[in-house]
Amino acid sequence: MNKEVVFAVDIGGSKLMCGLVDRDGNVLKTEKCALLKDITIQKLEELIVGMFESLTSDGNYSVVSVGVNIPGLADPQNGVWVYACFSGISNYKISESLGAKLHLPIYIENDVNACALAEKVWGSCQDCNHYLWVTVSNGVGGGLVLNGEVYSGAFQGAGEFGHVVVEENGPQCPCGHFGCMEAVAAGPAISKRYFALTRVELPAVEIAKLARDGDEIALEVLKKTGEYIGKGLGKVASILNLEKYVLGGGVMQSFDLMQESIVNAFKREAFSSPNQCAKICQTSLKYEAALLGAAAISFRHK
Question: Which long-range contacts (CB under 8 A, 24 or more apart) does 215-221 make?
Answer without folding.
Answer: 218/194, 219/257, 221/190, 221/193, 221/194, 221/197
